[in-house]
Amino acid sequence: MNNTRKKTFTGFCFLLSLLFLIGCTNEKAESSNVIKLGFIGPLTGDGAYWGIIEKNAIDLAVEEINAQGINGKKLVVEYEDGKCNGEEALTAARKLVEIDNVGILLVSCSQEIIPLAPYTEAQHTLILGSYSASSQITNSGDFVFRNAYSNRDYAEVMVNTIGTNQSVAIMTEVTEFAADLRDIFKEEFSKRGGQIVAEENTPVGDKDAATYVTKMLAQKPDAVFINPTGPATGIPILKELRKQGYDGKVYGNFFGGSKTVQELPEAQGMIFFADPDVVQTPRKTALFEKYKQIYGEYPDLEFPAAARYDFIYILAEAIKNSGEDTASIRDYLYEMKNFNGVLGQYHFDQNGDVVGIIPSVRVITEGKSAPVE
Fold this sequence. Notes:
Elements: H1 3-31, E1 34-41, H2 48-68, E2 74-81, H3 86-99, E3 104-107, H4 110-123, E4 126-129, E5 144-146, H5 151-162, E6 167-173, H6 176-191, E7 195-202, H7 210-217, E8 223-227, H8 231-243, E9 249-252, H9 259-262, E10 271-274, H10 282-295, H11 302-322, H12 326-335, E11 339-341, E12 344-348, E13 354-355, E14 360-365, E15 368-371
Parallel strand pairs: 1-2, 1-3, 3-4, 4-5, 6-7, 6-8, 8-9, 9-10
Antiparallel strand pairs: 10-14, 11-12, 12-13, 14-15
């Protein structure tokens, strides 16, 4: 190679190196101006019913916050489909934490949070849950917070409402949330002298309820408690109960909050233990009208929209006041006084559980739900 070609080749290599360095510098400058968040939740499958609602609410909050910025930076959210499945969620978390360098995860389901917690605790990665009620989350880690109620709150409200002077049959879809609620309800109900005469447990996603309902009704319960993971599996149970002629009292978990459920003839008269009421306020009105304007309809479940929207604003305040270090954000959340959000006023206790959010009791009549006095 002659000297001229050597110089040309050397100059070419230098130019490539310079362009590479400039590209890297610009990339670092760009990344330094954003705060990355990761979402892990059901974006496909039955759970997408509320996972998409959470995603939409997050996008709305992020857009509003980014209009002002947080200490000169903007929020960016990477979305992963956890499918309410522990293995899928762990794979998603490893990708977000180890490849995308995300330190804050917005995780939806109990069955995602519980298997994730040991991994995220070791990484000092924050988990912020908004639709995750399992009682096991309470002691799952120092970096885990949720503004959703616990199943222990849920079960207490259930027992107080149902009372112990009637026999009860339970039909549960065996997921982390529903199985946990079943066990806590049984414990509390039996402790107070209640009688559970039948218990049927269905596989995840099973919509063929006929055999289970037949076996359950053979025990002649005074009341039936339907305990699915969501409307997709709750509706077939409800319809089958009525098809087989059951006319006793029917109770349900949060799935009764769906407008689709409330419009069913089979659902009329069902009492359900619901997400906390999202009280009508100017903040709620503004959020839900904007949600409808952008997505074409109001969220079918109000609580996950309000809770997830609130959590983005809580997080923005935490970062603004304490910086981006996850341990500092954790400490801010533990010390936070009552946050005034769409859900109302609340804070977190020493376990990262919410204080001030209590499940409600509602009854379905004439295609709508109303509070039970």
